[in-house]
Each structure stands twice: as C-alpha cells, then as structure tokens.
Amino acid sequence: MAGHRAQWKGFIKFGEVSCGVGLYTAASTSERISFHTINKKTGNRVNRIFVDSDTGKEVEREDQTKGFEIENGQYLMIDPEQVAATIPESNKTLTVEAFIPCSDVDDVYFDKPYYLVPTDRVSSDAFTALRDAMEKSQVAAVARTVLFRRMRTVLIRTHGKGMIATTLQYDYEVRSSEKAFEEVPKLRIKGEMLDLAKHIIATKKGTFDPAEFDDRYEAAVGELVKAKIEGKALPKRKEVKVSKPDDLLAALRESAKMLKAGDAKPKRSAANANKGTSRNSATRTPAAKSSRNATAHRKAG
C-alpha cells in the first residue's frame, strides 16, 4: 500500500503453499480531535508521574516494576524481562488452521481489522489463488500467529482485490450474552403496536453507506472548540424524551402518520434520513474544518 507502513510483515501459509504478506491498519483514530490535560492556573500542560500509593513520593522509572496482586494490598513482583521471556517466539507466519463458512464466527469476537496484501510481485500469484479460491468457496480462513508480542487468532476474509485479517477475542474475553440479557423482561408485543412498529421499519429501510454517517461526538466537539475560539455561547444539548409504556402506542401512531405524510417527498438513504452533514473531506462542518485548521487550538483543553 503506497504511502502507508505495514504494521506487520511475514507470510501466510495454507497447506504447503506460502507467500509474503503485510498487515496494514484498516481503521485509525488519528483524525479525531484530541485534548491535553492543562493546569488551569498557568495554562501549561500537565505531565504524568508515578507516585507511591502509601508514601506519596514520586517513583523513578528505574525503580518501577510489574506486580501481580495475590491478595488485598500484597503484590508478587515480576521483572519486565521475565514477562518478555514468556512471549511466544514468532516465525512471522500466519498459519491457516481451517477454512470455515463466513457466518460461523459471531462478530462479538471481532477485535481489530487489518488489510492483508501481498508484499511483492513474486507472492501475488499464490495470494491471488488463495483469495479467489476462498471467494468461490464462500469461506473464511482461521489462522494463528504471534502479532504484537501475543499469540493471536485471526479471521481472514476476501475483500475486493485483497483480504481483511481481523484479530479475534479469546473466548474468556467475551462476556456471556445470557448474563447481559438476563434482566430483560419476557414480553410479547402483538396487534396494532407490532404492526405499527413493522410499518415504521418497512418505510425506513435503506442501504448502509459508512461515508454517510457522522461521528456526532466529533462534530459536537468541533462545534464546542469553534464556539470557544470565537467567544460565542456554547451549544446546548437537546434532551431526548423516552417513550413511556402508556404513551408507546400513541408515539407509534404519530411516527407512522409522519412517515405517511412524507411519502411524497424525495427519498433519502437510511443514513441521510437520520444524520446531519457528512464528515467527508468535501462536506465537513465549518466547526470540524475550523478545529482542524487551527492546530494550536485543536490540542488545547
């Protein structure tokens, strides 16, 4: 990928075939507005230091080590070099262990996506053979390797001319959905209420285009920064009215009535029907533009 640096370079191996590949970050937060912690009295940045929880005195870097709590307030000290020694050795190879139906992995296990591409012309033939065979067979590949000092399981799926490699959470890291939903009451909605809800869904159907969805938090922070720079009144948040059970049917009826009245108007995508201005480079809000152009203020707080 021209202009981008690979986060990891190695090989992918399936059967006795292998080829050079690189992983490139597919999502980044570098474009988000960020803040520093500032001393209110001086306007200077605040530096983070480590202090002893008992004495309150600063602990220098050379006196810091790792610790595992074995009981309340009692720690087993472990040298960082001992931790480093436990990291599995990496052979820089994504070894495919199985090919599975694309729908087999619940997306709750998805961690972080990377673009997977061949690293050179020699590897392109084997890479393309794997990609096309997976696409024709409608399967994904499950592979394992050491990534960023940890043994990781990776789900590999075809994506256009390349592939997407998504690191997966381990089973112990994913919380039980049964426990999460255990307090949700068992209710059955029937009759007019269900029909109205289905009608609203039917009239709001659309397609997903990620470019049409705003990061509303980022836009709101941009408006805040712009208002502060220009000395204007700060934007006020609109309160959301929660539909109470007694008012739910009336709210559904009103929603259906409004949608019916709007049928004659030009259709917009599902995203545009529920958003403000897109944050694409050509249509960013003035607040977002101002916050990005004013570099000195963008990192202020």
TrEMBL record:
Specify the Ku domain's residue ranges: 56-186
Q: Where are the transmembrane segments?
A: none
State the superkingdom. Answer: Bacteria
Q: Where is this region: Disordered?
A: 259-301
Keywords attached to this entry: DNA damage, DNA recombination, DNA repair, DNA-binding
- Function field: With LigD forms a non-homologous end joining (NHEJ) DNA repair enzyme, which repairs dsDNA breaks with reduced fidelity. Binds linear dsDNA with 5'- and 3'- overhangs but not closed circular dsDNA nor ssDNA. Recruits and stimulates the ligase activity of LigD.
> What protein name is recorded for this chain?
Non-homologous end joining protein Ku
Q: Which organism is it from?
A: Shinella curvata
For this protein's source organism, the top of the classification is: Bacteria, Pseudomonadati, Pseudomonadota, Alphaproteobacteria, Hyphomicrobiales
Name of the encoding gene:
ku
